[in-house]
Amino acid sequence: MGFIVAAALLPLAYRWYAGRRAAPQSRITSLHVAVGLVVALAAFVHALMAVMSLGTAQAIGAGNLGLALGGIAVFVLMAHVGIGLQLRRPKLRDRPAMRAKHRFTALTIVSFAVAHTILVWANR
């Protein structure tokens, strides 16, 4: 969850500090992309480990809803990465609409990941 927060704070902090959005090819955007890719890789590995331990008491105790919410978060995360990589193109058409999709998927990921975490921890 810490990497998700770090990935989100990079562009937000830059915008607050500089008073404008970072350019698609800027260092801060590249760092945001790098941290985001680490998040995606970690989420994929986390989901893979969960799938491999589905028969264990911990996985069963977490409940189907907790596991489903985590799965949805990973699915939306993959779409989020795709949208984000499109935003790297300097001549992207309809950039505001793509930024809105990127923001919407980010909020969806955080919502589902938080709900997943709460349910898993509550059912331990």
Brief summary of the model shown:
Helices cover 81% and strands 0% of the residues.
The number of strands is 0
Radius of gyration: 16 Å
Uncertain segments of ≥5 residues (pLDDT<50)? none
Structural class: mainly alpha
Beta-strand content estimate:
under 5%
Shape: elongated
Largest sheet: none
Structural features, described:
The protein is mainly α and 124 residues long. The protein has one domain (2-122). The chain is built from five helices and no strands. The mean pLDDT is 91.
Topology, please?
Elements: H1 2-18, H2 27-52, H3 57-62, H4 64-87, H5 95-122
Helix pairs in contact: 1-2, 2-4, 4-5
Which key phrases capture this entry?
mainly alpha; elongated; 124 residues
